[in-house]
Specification:
281 residues, alpha/beta, eight-stranded mixed β-sheet, 8 strands, 34% helix, globular
Length: 281
Amino acid sequence: MIAETPSKTLPLEGNSPYDLRLYQSRDVPESAVKKALLSGDIGFIHSFTTGSTVDGPGVRVVGWTAGCHWRCLYCHNPDTWSMINGMPVTLERAVEGLRKYRAGLKVMAGGFTLSGGEPLMQDRFAVKLFTAAKAMGVHTAIETNGSLGERLTDEELEKIDLVLLGIKAWGSERHMHLTGKDIGPTLDFARRLAALRRPVWVRFVLVPGLTDDAQDIREIAKFAASLGNVERVEVLPFHQMGRYKWEKLGINYELDDVKLPTSALVDQTLGLFRAEGLNAV
Ligand code: SF4
């Protein structure tokens, strides 16, 4: 049994995912972490935040999970890469943390989004939490890089009303440079969601000089349009709000000199997605 320490030193609710929260599970033995991951009875959470209007439809509670095996150059939450930085939270505590917002979320046509980190690093916990949210009548969404989608069965995917799928770059080499991982599993998951007709919003982070190649964006747009289940494409302009975390963590940050995208570049990118008939915003 994992004692919920030192998580008691911090509330589950955080002000923002940009808060730096470190080493919340440092006293949890590795064997207990493994057991928790297998059972899904305990999750490792950065925080829950409320009032988000940018992580799915309506106003949402967002659970920020710890653990990600990707290393995106523009990641704004590198403190969530390591599971050890998440606080151990029992499923019951997480469900209760959500339950108190249930009525308000319905009124505001919102719901619950699990983000991260990569939430499917904790796939059993995610499934149990989504199942509980659905039982409360709360709309559910997951923000994922899609690479671990095979961990979920088709039935489990039905507990997720919306997948916010990050497609970060096009082409193996560019994707590997940006994320440290192969794009193949993400595209396989996208095709599987399409075959199951599960609703998807594609999220694309626009970084000048890194992800703004027009031909690459056209390829992503063509792929997304071919799926038939992509309801929306969100073009997310790169920002520098996470830079201080890289500095605090002592990780080399390569994007120091990268400027924010101009509104002209954002418009041009939206145009490339819209040219394929996609609802790009
Ligand atoms: S997939 Fe998300 S959490 Fe993981 S490194 Fe990339 S941006 Fe960060």
